[in-house]
């Protein structure tokens, strides 16, 4: 390896105590290891923490940026570093496996679950979120955008949806306490018609990330059942 990336060279000139350097595809060095560890902790798999910013790290960075409302350009500048750090020092103490702890409902029973971010400002139970984010990044690199319309729902949110359903102004909704969205394992994705490229991609790939369809009338509703 002869080439030293420009950002690493700049970082070296600024000295070790400076703010984290801007990183991009082909960056190398200890700051990349830090980035990879933080991505992994946030549920975005960059591959091995080997200090080499390759395609897997790029996909993880883009998915992380998308999930946090940043421009998904794959360049790790101050804003992305900030989100990576903020996540770690958020107001809610991190539960085991990262994420925030909330009351979820499974088959009518309250239970404590841990949530992590997925794209479009939504959340899922942390294990489901990690799998969804991997799937999202893989879909992205195949040119498929999995837009999330609904992830975890609080009791209030499910009550509101159920009321709309009863009023005849909303989609089918499970009665409060009984939606798998309240357990953090269900996600609604914009898939279009079952003939669309997005739906076909899900049909061919979702299973290997642990996601299956469970509601025959709802092609957008997927559940994490690995
Ligand atoms: Zn749903």
CATH class category name of the largest domain = Alpha Beta
Overall domain count: 2
Q: Report helical residue fraction.
A: 25-40%
User: How would a crystallographer describe the biggest sheet?
Assistant: 4 strands, antiparallel
User: How would you write the strand order of the largest sheet?
Assistant: 4-5-7-6
* Stretches with pLDDT under 50, minimum 5 residues: 87-96
CA-based gyration radius: 19 Å
The bound ligands are:
zinc ion
Tell me the number of strands. Answer: 7
State mean pLDDT (0 to 100 scale). 87
- Summed up, the helix count is 7
What does this molecule look like?
With 226 residues, the protein is α+β, with helices and mostly antiparallel strands. The protein folds into two domains: 83 residues, PGBD-like superfamily/PGBD (Muramoyl-pentapeptide Carboxypeptidase, domain 1, Orthogonal Bundle), CATH 1.10.101; 125 residues, Muramoyl-pentapeptide Carboxypeptidase, domain 2 (2-Layer Sandwich), CATH 3.30.1380. 37% of the residues lie in helices and 15% in strands. It has a four-stranded antiparallel beta sheet with strand order 4-5-7-6, with helices on one face. α3 crosses α5. 38% of the residues are buried. About 4% of the residues have low confidence. It binds zinc ion. Zinc ion binds next to β5.
SSE blueprint and pairings:
Blueprint: H1 6-14, H2 30-41, H3 55-67, H4 78-88, E1 100-106, E2 109-118, E3 122-125, H5 126-141, E4 148-150, H6 155-167, E5 186-189, H7 197-205, E6 211-213, E7 221-224
Antiparallel strand pairs: 1-2, 2-3, 4-5, 5-7, 6-7
This protein binds zinc ion.
Zinc ion binds at residues 150, 181, 186, 188, 221.
């Amino acid at each position: 390896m002869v080439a030293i990336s420009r950002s690493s060279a700049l970082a070296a000139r600024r000295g070790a105590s400076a703010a984290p350097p801007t990183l991009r595809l082909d960056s190398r060095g200890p700051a990349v290891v830090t980035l990879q560890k933080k991505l992994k902790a946030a549920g975005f798999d960059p591959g091995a923490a080997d200090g080499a910013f390759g395609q897997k790290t790029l996909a993880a960075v883009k998915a992380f940026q998308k999930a946090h409302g940043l421009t998904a350009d794959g360049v790790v500048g101050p804003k992305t570093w900030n989100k990576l750090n903020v996540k770690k020092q958020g107001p809610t103490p991190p539960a085991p496996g990262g994420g925030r702890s909330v009351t979820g409902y499974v088959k009518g029973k309250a239970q404590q679950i841990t949530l992590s971010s997925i794209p479009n400002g939504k959340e899922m139970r942390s294990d489901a979120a990690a799998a969804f984010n991997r799937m999202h990044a893989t879909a992205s690199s195949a040119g498929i955008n999995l837009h999330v319309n609904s992830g975890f729902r609080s009791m209030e949110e499910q009550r509101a949806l159920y009321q709309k359903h009863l009023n005849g102004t909303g989609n089918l909704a499970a009665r409060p306490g009984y939606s798998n969205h309240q357990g953090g394992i269900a996600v609604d994705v914009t898939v279009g018609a079952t003939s669309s490229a997005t739906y076909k991609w899900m049909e061919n790939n979702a299973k290997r990330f642990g996601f299956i369809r469970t509601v025959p009338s709802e092609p957008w509703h997927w559940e994490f059942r690995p």
